[in-house]
Amino acid sequence: MALILYMACLLTWLLHERFEEMPTRIAIENQYEPVRNLTFPAIIICSPNQITISAMKHFNKTLVEGKRALNLKIILPQLLGFYELVGDLSPEDLQNLQNLITLNRYNSLEVMGMLPQSCDDFLKLCFFKGKRYPNCKGLFNPILTKHGMCCTFNSKYHYKKNKRNERIFNFKPETTSRTGLSESLVVVADYNPDDALAGTILNAGAIRLMFTDWTEFPADDESNLVHPNSESFHVIHPTYTYCSEDVITLPAWSRKCYFEDEYTLPHFKKYHKSDCNLLCDVNELERLCHCTMIYVPNVYLGRACNVTSIDCIVKAKMQINKWYRTEQCDCPRDCVSFRYRVEMILGNIDALPHIMFNPYSDMVFNKTTTIMQFFVPSPVYVKQKQETVMSLITLSSNLGGVFGLCLGCSTISMLEIYFYIYLLIKNNIKKRLQNVLNNKVGLAQ
Length: 445
Fold this sequence. Notes:
By secondary structure, the chain is of the alpha+beta class. It contains 13 helices and 19 strands. Helix 1 runs antiparallel to helix 12 (392-407).
């Protein structure tokens, strides 16, 4: 009996531990969810030309005060330290440049938005759902990211009026109800290296692509590098995840995820895992360098890093293995989310002059020109559901099975035990009262 009781307690403890450790699971609910008004992903295209000669000349013309004899060709490439691990930094040159910027009533955000290649120059032509967009006007907006100035499609964030990144209020994302190349987004880009300042071309001229949900700030969780003089096809596979009613009622620590309005993130307000991960890096750099990275949305201009902070930023990034700890930043996943897995097929553009219907016949292609096509290939996508592995009802049923197996105990048995205890107490009280009554009668006689 003691062994059986021990076994019942052990099984009960194991069931409770499993309930605590893995209360939910994510299972595929439908692999063939039909595409109806499916939200197109946010696509971010980053030019490798981040400091242009023409922009440097324009910036130099706008300077009217201070020491204008600075050699900008040598100093400006050091500004890439905001994004890259740049060597040979000169704190003295950076201080002189910051003084010049301050005297002319500029700030670092304005300068870093002014120097890169503009989206109108970088993007030559776009097609979306069969409609032609010269220079992609109306489709793409500039945005400042951790990889520099980029152009974003279908994102609620943009770089507003050369000031800072902000949200677009009442933004309506692009959707699609059909699949294939007829619904694709086609982009022709050229980063124009002839207009690039020496030593400022990033990624050896490759174009960086990033894919996120339209509600999230650009992140490189899903990204590709596309080499120039190529045609690439980017096949988008969406996956939608949501929660069951039972999971929604669980506390956040149990389901291990957040809804977007459940936790407020600084600079972003609504919660997203990718935004939380970005803030982890930003907060650590702010702790080390005492300023906020310039690409953070809604950054206070007084707190934004200036040019003199670049030396500290680069040194901190080079020592990231010493100060970055995963356990210091807890970013649970999103309870409801769209994720996009992207496959890339790459070829060259040498065959363009020989195709029957050439939509680019009026364009001049260079060795630095790139054609990119983005489309959803299948009329269905994957729908996932987070559900409870063991609810309270299931846990109670399992516990009832354990006690029934080991001790032969059930609810009826418990009621019977309570009933017999009640009878035992009742009989004892009645017996005592009878004894007291008999004693009184004996004394009276």
